[in-house]
Design brief:
3-methyl-2-oxobutanoate hydroxymethyltransferase activity, 12 helices, 8-stranded parallel barrel, alpha/beta
């Protein structure tokens, strides 16, 4: 969908998200890792996340841990060049916000300088100091609790969180502390629906659910999951709205067949010489002369 012949979409802002939370309007968020995905998603969604999930979705890693700040910068810049109307959020990758406030601010500030409107970081009580440091520097922060992929080794895999009394109540405490530290929104991933509903009820900031039931302030899914572009096992919380992987393979296969039988390119895909040059080209013969 092109914006060129339409009225430009109004930019989504952090105050707008808060107003939507207060009015009960649900937020739609998806990922984009390049300009193509950003242009497809932007007229439709409210938030675009340049996620560190690029590691396992696009770069072939088993998880998000190998993703670096440099990798995130590369993909963020590609998305930012499309100048989306959606709020553009960049993930803080592993080790980019763990070793001190100075490095955390530098890494997050670099994302804003490259076009992000905000950053997202994983974790609860242990990350409060970093959240406060960023907010004090006017860097908007989205929190992330529950199944936090950067903690995959500690969790023993990608497992639903908050299923015991201790972990459920700790998540509610962490959500409250992140809000108090200045987070403008909170992603809740891989937790029981009732727990996410309670967190959403108790918080004044919006919650964005992924595998967290229907009662959050909004929902996020990975772009490739929604379009069925991922192979193999899909998490329980994913709903693919088309089989993009198969559709793309079928289209590529039709093109390959046409190439092999000489049906591509056709006349409509060819450039033609001007009439006055055709005769000269048709009658050209190699010159036997050599330069002296």
């Amino acid at each position: 969908m092109s914006h060129s012949s339409e009225q430009p979409l109004e930019r989504v802002t952090i105050p707008a998200l808060q107003q939507w939370k207060d009015k009960g309007r649900r937020v739609v968020m998806t990922t984009a890792y390049d300009a193509v995905a950003a242009r497809i998603a932007d007229p439709i969604v409210d938030i675009i996340l340049v996620g560190d999930s690029v590691g396992n979705v696009c770069l072939g890693f088993d998880n998000t841990l190998p993703v670096s700040v440099a990798m995130m910068n590369h993909h963020l810049e590609a998305v930012a060049r499309t100048r989306p109307h959606a709020l553009l959020v960049a993930d803080m990758p592993f080790l980019s916000f763990h070793v001190g406030s100075e490095d955390t601010i530098r890494n997050a500030g670099g994302f804003l300088q490259r076009g992000a409107d905000a950053v997202k970081l994983e974790g609860g009580a242990k990350r409060i100091e970093m959240v406060r440091a960023l907010v004090d520097c006017e860097i908007p922060v989205m929190g992330h609790l529950g199944l936090t992929p950067q903690s995959v080794n500690v969790m023993g895999g990608f497992k639903v969180q908050g299923r015991t009394t201790d972990t459920a109540l700790r998540l509610l405490d962490d959500a409250h502390h992140l809000q108090e530290a200045g987070c403008f929104a909170l992603v809740l991933e891989g937790i029981p629906a009732e727990l996410a509903a309670r967190a959403t009820e108790c918080l004044t900031i919006p919650t964005i659910g992924i595998g967290a039931g229907p009662d959050c302030s909004g929902q996020v899914l990975v772009f490739h999951d929604v379009l069925g572009l991922t192979e193999g096992h899909r998490p329980k919380f994913v709903r693919a709205y088309t089989n993009g992987f198969q559709l793309f393979q079928e289209a590529l296969s039709r093109w390959a067949i046409d190439v092999r039988k000489g049906a591509f390119p056709g006349s409509e895909e060819c450039y033609r010489l001007p009439d006055q040059l055709r005769h000269a080209v048709a009658n050209w013969v190699p010159s036997n002369s050599t330069s002296r």
